[in-house]
Design a protein that fits this description.
CATH architecture of chain A: 4-Layer Sandwich
CATH topology of chain A: L-amino peptidase D-ALA esterase/amidase
Number of domains of chain A: 1
Strand content of chain A: 25-35%
Oligomer: homotetramer
CATH superfamily of chain A: L-amino peptidase D-ALA esterase/amidase
Helix content of chain A: 10-25%
Largest sheet of chain A: 5 strands, mixed
Largest interface: A-C, 41 and 41 residues
Shape of chain A: globular
Radius of gyration of chain A: 19 Å
């Protein structure tokens, strides 16, 4: 059983985590993985479904912050303009964005007969990192069926972390990277809300990592420069305006910087934040709709939660990922081994 | 009595105007002018007060779109970040922004004892154009007292247009420019809303103006290149998220382009949009507040209203402004004269 | 033989066009079409290649302006961050973005063995409009082979306009839309530069179109609301900083607004501008490189060229497109017929 | 003599500092302070002059990144649009922005007879933090003469740090804040360049500060929430495009986050970056000008320098500032005392 950052005395910040310390502390949210390990290929898809209904008909309010835009993600322009998500979110490798796009279109067309007829089109949301250091990304192994498998595997509850799904071939700070998650509780007006983060961690130069206790783990023999990226998904059940969601997404960058990153040139560092409160109904027949939003003066609480959970989710991703040998013998040690956390 | 664009067959677009065809069709909104004409100085302040209460304690939701950022306006950064206005809006000349800033601070401190003590500071909103072609802008004639006079003159009802207030020394398309206004009615869910625009028009090269009927008025003997700017204030009583207000503000640029402008390099073309619905209470004690917002699918209606009213407000500004001789004998003819609209 | 806007007295603005009045007035730039007409499917790809070399190794400086972000285009985030284009540009239909992405990746991998190995990845640039009114877009008929066909068909010289390539199934202002082009000459420092525009025109509500002479062509019997988009590609040989390219791209919006558009909610209105001057060499071994840029005080000239050529390119697209009956009997008349331009 | 961070084993990051470890390692750059301590007033102006010539006639290329926009700074909109600075940079308190604006206008008019006549206007650059916790900011004590004094005091060489100039009344992380500086050397193509940072540090909640060695200094008895801000000025002699300068400015946020900040809601966190290479000549008579720029692939080096120098400049500001009692008995302890660094 892997130990998480918190178990090792590496909790980040001061706010309490949710029950699972995972993005799935936001009720109804589901995560699924499809991992592909075949010869020199170590890759996969990870799917995040904000709720269990038809996302095209009930669209979560959302925002995006491009921390550093060296990336090929699909769907962010429309998300920014309309403040809405209308498909599941797929995480994959850089050259699989086209496949992910096609898979989400296939599913959306199957479930919504009006798309392309009465309703216009659909905006698939696919985010990516480059796993080409460990995996033969030129093989372009992933198919629409792999994406469907990730979508169909999506479940509530604990989230499998580390070298799974889209995280299979990722690297971070010269160690093995992958998928990680964390959450924070936010108490307001006598109610308890959650903000959960899921990261696809594939960023950071070897030697730059700083732990919350000040230690600086450096992998042996790694001279590779940074070519990575990191995707930060933030989910919350707190009611928020889309402008507020963008402010919160931005704080993902603070979480990354606390780990020692400076959002390197070649890194696609993207944060997407969404709320499950007050979704937008595609088939609304009223022009004016009611919603709730946070009074701006209280927004430091979700800001802090976003920074802390992002930082901790990256550590959780790294700690759950074992030492790995990939294509052409490329190696990534495990942060857990460096810490002596694994027997 | 001056004739407005609509009286001369120059109505812009298809939506019906409000009762006054003015920004003051938004109930509670007030406009005041202070005009200074002294020798070579033709300048002034125009004040727009979104409602008749304390704006620092009840802040209208707002957004800004910088169409072309050659300008010195104060207050836009915080407006964009927080989506709020918390002082009256002052329009003036470029070199009077500091004076306007000071005047709004003076008033805000007088009315709010907590500013600078328990509450942080205040964000004055001052927008400007360069009236230096007709006026001796280097004289820096405007004082805080002039700003107070504009604020104190603010009234509901019809808005004086043309060479008044901040519009005293402005130019547009080689003609005399100034302050103008227009509005549109928006019917939704069986209710009637209004979107009103007030412009400070000081933009456009001589020869570029196109009227809605295709005519191209060219002033005699004007060879001056563009060095102007235009400020577009949009007010509405329609409930909107701040992201939606930004989308609407952007359509001010369409109204300007329909007049023949291409948002010239040296022009500070700024649109600020705000709604009087669901203001943010400074002293709110709930963390979560309810508001209404427009379903995004209906937003073409305020888009169209914004473009049409901007276009018509500029024509109204020009038509109300008489032929003027300013500093060093610089001249601007009147569009009304070109059209033969004035006896 | 179709007549172009200029032949019909509908020239836009004042600057002189280039020899071809086309984007190909920028030397070395090539355009290719692949048109698919099969039963209810009217669609295709159009390829624009900024120069005739390997674009990944010699990357044109570029910028993007999102006029309205209701769209699914791929590659814009990295283009904005780095100010570079590194693949050909593909235009297609909305649901074919994944296919276009894959096709550009296939070609880039074939031509550059270092991608995904030593060099990181590649950023495919695919832009789109929704041709679902006339074409069965749900059929998802386009393949990578269709994209290759458009790329391989790319030629210098005159550009075929109208219902070809990606323009096959497009609509504009209730008429048949499609691909159009125009250019302007820019004289500076005794040298002659060109700015060319190619549009994929699929935007504008029936009844909103305004011609340069003030006429308002309204198609018979069209009650369809706007669900369209428009892609504006601007190419120039003028040396420019990427910030300047973004300012120029923005002026595409002025050209669209002069036609009567207000950049409708459901319209993906995107302008990409690039220069063939001083491309960025992928394999550069100097840290500091020399380039030229326009002195900012002269930028009104390319601004004006961008607005005028965008406006005229849309008219050229519409005039070259014949009346069309598409899927389920949906009809679009031809603007040329409305004008009586065709016998 | 105060000790700087580096003297206390608190150097940030890995790159070597310049000879002065100060923003003045960029040759020709000058810094001046005017400090006002009168009763309950602790405030001042700090002036930064990028070079020793007329800044309006020779404008440094520049960019701005708004990390969090709760602030009232003047001049940023035009700086972002044109990529130029054309006046000295003034740092002051929030309510003195109008005074600073006026002072810069006064100087610019005196030195440039064409402003407001042939040339348009001038864009004063004034940045601010709220020193109202320690100082009676409502007194509005600063005058144009104070601004002139700061400008006239500007010198090359070592920079006075701590509670001086605009830093007189500032706070950070519950300690006394102020002005600080640091620099890094950047070796490229066999030449040595410098990137220097000067901060006005007035941000961070008590208890959030993290030192580079992992210690967390917490001031005794401080229960004040964050209402601060931080201004980060970055100067370099490295040739850069304005888009690149913006990317570098953004990395100031990483430096702040490494200190434990999350860019709080009420904090105006602004980074302005400029280069002294290839300034823009106001009176240029060529349309096309030559410049150098960094090949994008090398930009991680100035990114790292920006993050490291920002982090260290804040520590230098805090270490140089003594424990202070301000208005109404408000107290801020000194970080130097906490560290036992001062005898």
């Amino acid at each position: 059983m892997t130990q998480r950052a918190r178990d090792l005395g590496l909790a980040c910040g001061a706010l309490p985590p949710g029950p699972l310390n995972a993005i799935t502390d936001v009720l109804g949210l589901r995560v699924g993985h499809r991992t592909v390990r075949e010869g020199d290929v170590l890759t996969g898809f990870t799917a995040v479904l904000p709720h269990d209904g038809n996302l095209f008909r009930r669209k979560p309010r959302a925002a995006v912050k491009v921390i550093n835009g060296f990336g090929k993600s699909a769907g962010l322009m429309q998300l920014a303009e309309l403040g809405q998500i209308e498909t599941p979110i797929l995480l994959g490798n850089t050259l699989a964005v086209g496949v992910g796009f096609d898979a989400l279109v296939t599913r959306a067309l199957a479930e919504n007969a009006d798309i392309g007829r009465e309703t216009g089109t659909v905006n698939p949301l696919v985010l990516e990192c480059n796993d080409g250091f460990l995996s033969d990304i030129r093989a372009r192994r992933l198919t629409q069926e792999d994406a469907f498998a990730a979508l169909d595997a999506a479940r509530e509850g604990p989230v499998e972390e580390g070298a799974v799904g889209a995280g299979a071939g990722m690297s971070a700070f010269g160690f093995k990277g992958g998928v990680g998650t964390a959450s924070r509780e936010i108490a307001l007006d006598g109610r308890l809300f959650h903000l959960g983060v899921l990261v696809l961690a594939n960023f950071g130069r070897a030697g730059d990592l700083v732990l919350p206790d000040g230690r600086r783990p450096t992998p042996a023999g790694s001279g590779e420069g940074e070519r990575g990226s990191v995707i930060v998904l933030m989910a919350t059940d707190l009611p928020l305006e889309t402008r507020q969601l963008k402010r919160i997404a931005r704080r993902g960058g603070a979480g990354l910087a606390r780990l020692g990153a400076f959002w390197g040139h070649g890194s696609g560092d993207i944060a997407v934040a969404f709320t499950t409160a007050d979704p937008v109904h595609h088939d609304e027949n009223q022009a004016l709709v009611g919603l709730s939003a946070l009074h701006e003066s209280r927004i430091d609480l979700p800001f802090q939660a976003a920074a802390e959970a992002t930082q901790e989710a990256v550590l959780n991703a790294m700690l759950a990922a074992p030492a790995t040998i990939g294509r052409d013998g490329h190696r990534r040690p495990s942060l857990a081994d460096w810490l002596g956390a694994r027997p």
